[in-house]
């Protein structure tokens, strides 16, 4: 049985200079893997910021299943070369339920567990500033997941990764999607990645959008013509 | 040396100031605000001039100026990219005001300049108590806000995604910073505060890999500087601030070398 996690109804977003979308409606089921695709500037990140309640839409509404907790890996992050924290300490930043400066035993166990599952144990003491692009993305993923969200939102997390690292990262995401019932929304420009990992797509275009099963799409041309 | 009460006072006050600067400094460095802490100490000087002009205690004027300017800067620099210019604009205004009040007040200018260079030697019990109070207030704040402040200081984007009220955290932090800078500066001088707030934490950032590790290192570096600086000042009669600044520089450059070796 499928349960609906998010219901988006007639969503509209108008900025003074342009209208990004209007009458956008779609549902996301629990355990689903949805890819959002579309040209630069079409409003993908804006849609996500609306889902995250960081931005108010100019119309329509969004309903989440009660108690939905969201983990988010944003498109841009400012971690420079001199950034001091180790991967472990960086991931632990997102443990915010406790109030004490030190982590509780169960928090430490949770931290160990997520580092294990994201394959970061061996490099947990590496500084974030010195980690490779692929290691950084895994650390962002681990930080978003350490808090055990129901929904994970990725905004172009693979944009800077080579083809090996790209699949490595998405294999991890798929693991959480399939083994831990994590619902995933992934913004991407990568057709192969979308085809291989997601169940459904939401294609945003100027003035309209298309929604469908990934299995019905066989090439990028199909997608442009929907 | 400890048989003199003024040395006892200097050591006690210096120890607490080192601890508080060591801790606050880690956040200052994490938030890339060294520039601001420099400006705050000078704004404090302007505030003191204003306080003297008004016939208040210098500390009142300092608190007024530093807190108001912190809040202004916090409000203006919601976007990090705008922060540098917001800081420049606000500090220019307050520094200008300081010069104005100094020139029209005709009162003892040397008292205000004292605040720039200050001296930890020669402070009384009352001032020691002030420092103690300041330390407790700041520590309670840090303890209370530890996790959100840490998140926001070391991963602002992640923290705002989490729904932490980063603006609120940021302004509250700036107010506590203003409070520490002013109270400590009128006792030991704002030059010394700037040194203790930035260098130990900057060295810690090079050496340590966790926030708690950075705090321990930064407190340790600040304490070594203060204790050794006071001792050297006592036996040579040279200014303590000179020794502390030099020691902190040595620790900082030492950390850079250490980093290159590893
Ligand atoms: N707060 C805002 N105010 C005004 N315009 C905005 C705002 N946020 C975004 N926009 C505009 O909305 C459009 C869509 O931006 P958005 O970042 O959502 O695009 P995107 O689909 O994520 O693009 P990319 O693929 O490059 O990441 C852009 O033209 C942008 O300038
Ligand atoms: Mg985007």
From TrEMBL, chain A:
GO terms for molecular function: ATP binding; ATP hydrolysis activity. The keyword S-adenosyl-L-methionine does not apply. SUPFAM superfamilies: P-loop containing nucleoside triphosphate hydrolases. The keyword ATP-binding applies. Keywords: ATP-binding, Nucleotide-binding, Transport. Residues 6-226 form the ABC transporter domain. It comes from the Bacteria. Belongs to the ABC transporter superfamily. This is ABC-type Mn Zn transport system, ATPase component. The lineage of its organism: Bacteria, Bacillati, Bacillota, Bacilli, Lactobacillales.
Automatic annotation (TrEMBL), chain B:
Its main location: membrane. GO terms for cellular component: ATP-binding cassette (ABC) transporter complex. GO terms for biological process: response to zinc ion; transmembrane transport. Gene3D superfamilies: ABC transporter involved in vitamin B12 uptake, BtuC. It is a multi-pass membrane protein. The chain crosses the membrane at residues 12-30, 50-73, 85-102, 131-149, 169-199, 211-234, 240-258. It holds the Pfam family ABC-3. Keywords: Membrane, Transmembrane, Transmembrane helix, Transport. It is found in: Cell membrane; Membrane. PANTHER family: ABC-TRANSPORTER METAL-BINDING PROTEIN, IRON TRANSPORT SYSTEM MEMBRANE PROTEIN HI_0360-RELATED. Belongs to the ABC-3 integral membrane protein family. This is ABC-type Mn2+ Zn2+ transport system, permease component. It comes from Pediococcus stilesii.
């Amino acid at each position: 049985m499928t349960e609906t996690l998010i219901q988006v109804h007639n969503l509209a977003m108008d900025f003074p200079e342009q209208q990004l979308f209007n009458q956008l409606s779609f549902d996301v089921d629990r355990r689903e893997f949805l890819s959002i695709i579309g040209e630069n500037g079409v409003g993908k990140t804006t849609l996500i910021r609306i889902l995250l309640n960081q931005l108010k839409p100019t119309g329509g509404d969004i309903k989440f299943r009660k108690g939905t907790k969201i983990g988010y890996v944003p498109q841009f992050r400012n971690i420079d070369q001199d950034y001091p924290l180790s991967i472990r300490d960086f991931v632990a930043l997102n443990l915010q339920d406790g109030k004490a400066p030190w982590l509780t035993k169960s928090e430490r166990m949770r931290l160990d567990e997520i580092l294990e599952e994201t394959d970061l144990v061996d490099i947990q003491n590496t500084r974030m500033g010195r980690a490779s692009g692929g290691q950084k993305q895994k650390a962002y993923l681990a930080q978003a997941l350490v808090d055990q969200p129901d929904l994970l939102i990725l905004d172009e997390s693979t944009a800077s990764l080579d083809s090996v690292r790209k699949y490595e990262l998405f294999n991890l995401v798929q693991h959480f999607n399939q083994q831990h019932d994590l619902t995933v929304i992934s913004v991407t420009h990568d057709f192969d990645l979308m085809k291989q990992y997601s169940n459904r797509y939401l294609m945003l275009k100027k003035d309209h959008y298309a929604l469908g099963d990934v299995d019905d799409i066989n090439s990028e041309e199909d997608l442009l013509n929907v | 040396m400890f048989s003199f009460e003024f040395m006892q006072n200097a050591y006690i006050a210096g120890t607490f100031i080192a601890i508080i600067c060591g801790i606050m400094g880690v956040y200052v460095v994490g938030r890339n605000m060294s520039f601001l802490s420099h400006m705050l100490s000078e704004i404090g000087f302007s505030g003191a001039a204003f306080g003297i002009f008004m016939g208040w205690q210098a500390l009142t004027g300092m608190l007024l100026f530093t807190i108001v300017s912190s809040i202004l800067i916090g409000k203006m620099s919601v976007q990090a990219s705008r922060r540098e210019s917001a800081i420049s604009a606000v500090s220019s205004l307050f520094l200008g005001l300081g010069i104005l009040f100094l020139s029209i007040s005709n009162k003892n200018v040397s008292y205000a300049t004292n605040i720039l260079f200050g001296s930890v030697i020669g402070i009384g019990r009352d001032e020691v108590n002030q420092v103690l109070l300041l330390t407790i207030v700041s520590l309670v704040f840090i303890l209370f806000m530890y996790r959100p402040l840490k998140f926001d200081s070391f991963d602002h984007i992640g923290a705002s995604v989490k729904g932490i009220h980063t603006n609120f955290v940021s302004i509250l932090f700036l107010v506590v910073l203003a409070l520490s800078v002013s109270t400590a500066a009128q006792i030991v001088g704002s030059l010394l505060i700037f040194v203790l707030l930035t260098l130990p934490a900057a060295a810690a950032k090079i050496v340590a890999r966790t926030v708690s590790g950075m705090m321990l290192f930064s407190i340790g570096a600040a304490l070594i500087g203060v204790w050794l600086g006071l001792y050297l000042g006592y036996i040579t009669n040279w200014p303590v601030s000179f020794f502390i600044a030099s020691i902190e520089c040595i620790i900082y450059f030492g950390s850079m070398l250490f980093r290159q070796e590893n």
